Amino acid sequence: MQSVTGVSIADETAGPHGQSPLAGDGAGTGRLGDRLFGGAAIGAGAIVVGLVTLIGVFLLSQAIPSLMKNEANFLTSTEWSVGGEHPRFGILRLLWVTVLSSLMALAIAVPIGIAVALFITNYAPKWLSKPAASTVDLLAAVPSIIFGLWGLRVLGPHTDGIQNFLRDNLGWFPLFKETTVGSSTTIFLAGIVLAIMILPIITALSREVFAQTPPTHKEGALALGATKWEMIRTAVLPFGKPGVISAAMLGLGRALGETVAVMILISSLAQGTAFSFSLFDGGETFASKIALGAGEFDTPQKTGAYIAAGLVLFILTFIVNAIARIVIERRKAFTE
Amino acid sequence: MAKRIDVSDLDIFYGNFKAVEGVSMSIEPRAVTAFIGPSGCGKSTVLRTLNRMHEVIPGGRVEGKVLLDGQDLYAKDVDPVGVRRTVGMVFQRPNPFPTMTIRDNVAAGLKLNGVKNKARLDEVVEKSLKGANLWNEVKDRLDKPGAGLSGGQQQRLCIARAIAVEPQVLLMDEPCSALDPISTLAIEDLINDLKERYTIVIVTHNMQQAARVSDQTAFFNLKATGQPGKLVEIDSTSRIFNNPSEKATEDYISGRFG
A321: which residues sit within 8 A by CB, 6+ positions away? Predict the structure, then answer.
């Protein structure tokens, strides 16, 4: 099983075909201990697979009846009225806001996370690296509701300048188009806050893989006359790349699913507002829409509509993870 | 191209610990100098001071002088990065960059120096791999990962990588200790070829190897654990192995200790 860092112990000792030398061989002796432990391990693995399957089945079974009654196109509609005899709902706007805010968070958090991780592992003096690492980890302990409030009350007003600047100078570009939404409640601000929220996980995992760079690789680069930065570029970053990709995907997963902070931050749009690509628009993500709609779950039909939205989120995170896996696998021949 | 190295009164420290004391020696150009001695006597440490690689370990510093054709490597205005471009190094365990292809591994040093011209890179890659006696074995798979080669091939790849930047001196820290006898032989043949162009310093635990490949041999020793290591003597290899001036050298060579 691959660890979250993408660098498992099995990778370190892998044989020529990427197989752990002892994986699935005949090392089991048939004694009681072996059988008990083997059974427990298989059971644990089966539970995980079973859980994912059950969640998928649950989402599908709840969503399908509502989807059958839906009179709008579920994928391309921006409407959302789930009650009554003629429900019309679609996820286009939810999908756009979710993906946009998460990608923006990723675009900010990944470079900063890598930089912080490099600082902690390669630049900081010994006495500083431990406290710096724990401080970043502490960020992860701040509840998301606090991030939401802080973003709304403190950070939001400070981003006026940059938001206005982008709007005024790059307004011709669909992402920066002018809207009527106040700057403390835009997707743009949510993206920044989400970036801060996923920074700790990206930093922590990147730090972990960078710290594992074999000293012989670093020495190899230095002995060729590499400066510190060149050593990092030739030895540390390539070695850490799969781990950083995993970290980014975990961060993306968190950003896609973040609920409370986004719900507080982004202002909901009135029914029927025209769809826009702008970062300065309001709206809802899948998660915040479902949370906001929780009061409406009085009939299976309404609930089913929201669950259908949840199903899309589920599939989205699935795809994100699959892509990450593919990227990592492709580079596997180049890691020991 | 090859340059001589003069070491005078060199003390090496790690923090407050004095690892090596009072080393003075001359290393001849276009020849192989072997460092031998028991474990922990500081021979690898001395080797690493010749291209300032010991500074990579926190607290590593020296007192004394190391002159490369008269130029002090430890003068204030000397950049260690520049020193390492002039004095290449090959390590105990083969360490090709695992994420790079064979071609990129060899070209890594040149790319660090800012060479981008593809034709020039290809030319140097071929020349260096030929120089490391590896070309015939890898010419059809230059775009495969370097980590997929055998241990001996990886070590020769590392030698190719080191000579691709055309250093003046090549340092080898027990380059064969992780290799089988056949690969060892291949590396030793290579060392024999390379000494026509480079100054070579090799640390080895294998006395037969020192006798086979080197022109002069330096014997290092230490009085007791925790004491700094010292250079006992340096002389032509035949003298060290047949008629050393020091009793300690004779005892070590003849296997009476160490």
Answer: A249, A253
Supply the ipTM of this predicted assembly.
Answer: 0.87
CA A213 to chain CA centroid, nearest Å: 25
Residue by residue, what is the 3-state secondary structure of B89-129? EECCCCCCCCCCEHHHHHHHHHHHCCCCCHHHHHHHHHHHH
Shortest Cα–Cα distance, B237 to chain A (Å):
28
Could you list the residue range(s) of the whole structural domain that residue A131 is in?
Answer: 91-335
Give CA–CA dist A53/A42, Å, rounded: 16
To the nearest whole Å, the CA of B145 is away from the closest chain A CA by 6
Q: List chain A residues with CB under 8 Å of B159.
A: none
Residues A278 and A142 in one domain: yes
Q: Is A149 helix (H, G, I), strand (E, B) or coil?
A: helix
How far away is chain B from the Cα of A226, in angstroms, using its nearest Cα?
Answer: 6
Tell me the β-bridge partners of A88. A81
Is A108 in contact with A175 (CB distance < 8 Å)?
A: no
Tens digits of per-residue pLDDT, A140-180? Answer: 888 989 998 998 888 888 888 888 888 788 877 777 777 77
> Per the domain annotation, does A258 fall within a domain?
yes
Mutation target for B interface from A11, A17, A122, A224: give the one with most B CBs within 10 A. Answer: A224
**Beta pairing class for B71-72 and B169-173:** unpaired
Tell me the pLDDT tens digit for each residue of B3-52: 889 998 999 998 888 889 889 999 988 999 999 988 888 889 999 999 99
**What's the CATH number of domain B5-253, 3.30.390.30, 3.20.20.70, 3.40.50.720, 3.40.50.300?**
3.40.50.300
Q: Which sequence spans correspond to the domains of chain B?
A: 5-253
Could you tell me how many CB contacts below 8 A there are between chain A and chain B? 81
